[in-house]
Write a structure and sequence with these properties.
Order of helices and strands: HHHHHHHHHH
Largest sheet: none
Shape: elongated
Number of strands: 0
Structural class: mainly alpha
Length: about 180
């Protein structure tokens, strides 16, 4: 495909997905194809970190965590496959531990068990109830604290503090924008 030319592709959708797409298109006053393109672009933007071969190890934590349990469930990503996706080619100082990868994988298939394995207590004021947004938040905070917020060690936050913004979440968002080719506003 050259330049900005569009290309037709064929996809298979269940009849229930087609029905939902048509209802949504009618309600929004747009074409079915507009709804499909929106869904595809939203998914590609959410997974932009995985499109950049230079993003590896702990730098992929925000992409995988924010993609959520549906991402892990839909693609049937077990811990071994997630480990290969996240840590392949990453410097050993940026590897995500197998235990944490197992937690991410379990959060997609067995969220209650994942929360039992999460050894850190929930942050103050967050009540961990399995299968709730609070439990997802506890897992997200555990992973972000361990891989993005650390200072002074050999982790992502320490080694690259000079090339990223002071706020790790903003730094991860900036990095994902750069990876997807979107200029910061």
């Amino acid at each position: 495909m050259k330049g900005n030319r569009k290309q037709a592709v064929s996809i298979r959708l269940s009849s229930s997905d087609v029905r939902k797409m048509k209802v949504l298109a009618k309600r929004l006053g747009v074409r079915d194809s507009d709804v499909l393109r929106y869904a595809l672009k939203a998914a590609l933007n959410q997974l932009a970190g995985l499109c950049d071969p230079d993003v590896k190890g702990s730098a992929l934590v925000p992409t995988v965590v924010e993609a959520g349990a549906d991402f892990v469930r839909y693609f049937e990503l077990d811990a071994a496959r997630l480990d290969a996706i996240i840590n392949a080619g990453a410097d050993t100082t940026r590897h995500v531990s197998h235990d944490d990868i197992a937690l991410i994988s379990m959060a997609g298939s067995q969220p209650e068990y994942a929360m039992l394995r999460l050894r850190r207590p929930a942050p103050e004021g967050v009540r961990v109830v399995t299968g709730t947004p609070a439990s997802v938040d506890a897992l997200r905070q555990h992973l972000y604290q361990k891989y993005l917020y650390r200072d002074g060690d050999e982790g992502w936050g320490g080694r690259h503090a000079d090339s990223y913004a002071a706020e790790p979440v903003e730094a991860a968002a900036d990095h994902l924008e750069r990876a997807s080719g979107v200029a910061s506003q």
